[in-house]
């Protein structure tokens, strides 16, 4: 885990280098299967309590796992695993 300032600087540098930054959000993001994933993508997953900070979300494309039965959210590790699986499933 990087201090916030270093993490934000790293994301700016990655964007300048042509990387796309995606952030997991509980609602309102793009469905992972509809994203044209590439080798130059960065996926951010926040913790269960606070998620990805708003100042970081402002510079990232939101991605949301579709869920049924009004499930509120997933454990961050489970969400990250599913997003990584989905990203590689579409290779």
Low-confidence runs of at least 5 consecutive residues = none
Q: The biggest beta sheet, please?
A: 3 strands, parallel
Report the sheet-strand fraction: 5-15%
**What is the level 1 CATH name?**
Alpha Beta
Number of helical runs? 3
In the sheet with the most strands, the strands line up as 2-1-3
Structural class: alpha/beta
- How many beta strands in the DSSP annotation? 3
Radius of gyration: 13 Å
CATH architecture: 3-Layer(aba) Sandwich
Count of the separate structural domains:
1
What is the 3D shape? globular
General description of the model:
With 91 residues, this protein is an alpha/beta fold. It has a single domain (4-89), classed as SPOUT methyltransferase, trefoil knot domain (Alpha/beta knot), CATH 3.40.1280. Helix content is 34%, strand content 13%. It has three helices and three strands, in the order αββαβα. It has a three-stranded parallel beta sheet with strand order 2-1-3. It is globular and about 40 Å long. The mean pLDDT is 88.
């Amino acid at each position: 885990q990087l201090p916030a300032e270093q993490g934000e600087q790293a994301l700016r540098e990655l964007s300048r280098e042509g990387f796309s930054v995606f952030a997991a959000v509980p609602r309102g993001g793009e469905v992972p299967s509809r994203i044209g994933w590439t080798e130059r993508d960065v996926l951010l997953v926040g913790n269960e309590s606070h998620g990805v900070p708003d100042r970081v979300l402002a510079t990232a494309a939101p991605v949301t796992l579709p869920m049924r039965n009004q499930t509120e959210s997933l454990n961050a590790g489970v969400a990250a695993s599913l997003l990584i699986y989905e990203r590689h499933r579409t290779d």
